[in-house]
Sequence to fold (192 residues):
Amino acid sequence: MGSRWAATVVAGLITLFVASLPNAASAHLDQLAQATSEPELELEVDTAAAEPERLRRQAEERLRRGVLARQLGDLAAASADFVAAQEIFNRLDDPAGEASALLALGQLDLERQEYDYAMSSLDQARHLFRQRGDRIGEADSLVGLAELERETGEPDLAARDFEMAAALYDAAGETDRAAWALDQAAGLPVAE
Fold:
């Protein structure tokens, strides 16, 4: 419906524009206006189907740009790109993409010592990964949370999250990463 309305408006504008042109150009634009006023249903369907894919590519590009900006030390640009990617994935109802963007944002916020924001993003990512059954993503989120807890003086919570991450990595066949997470947990000071 919206595409037909837009085509009608465009055809009307073209008709008004054509009235002000010399005859030869006017005849050519009359044909264009006629073609525009009768949109094909296939074009409408293709446009509607292409929009989510275009948005998905845009979100993926924002994630890539964010990673590059982070590597180049432009943390503000990285943050803006990760937030934009997360918002687009959310709009697309793509929990996997949204979780990936939240994980990247949480890790960045941890690096910037924005602990409240990091906690929120990492926890949201963990829940989305868990809902999807993505053990690696959930474990990566738990590692981020454990690193945050280690930095904020909560070694017991950090050890718990490193151990949970190790179990998830192990279940996913990532034995090297599981061993690394267990080493991180073992290296934490014991609470008194």
Notes: The radius of gyration is 26 Å. The domain at 49-133 is CATH 1.25.40.10 (Serine Threonine Protein Phosphatase 5, Tetratricopeptide repeat). The chain is about 85% helix and 0% strand. The chain has a mean pLDDT of 82.
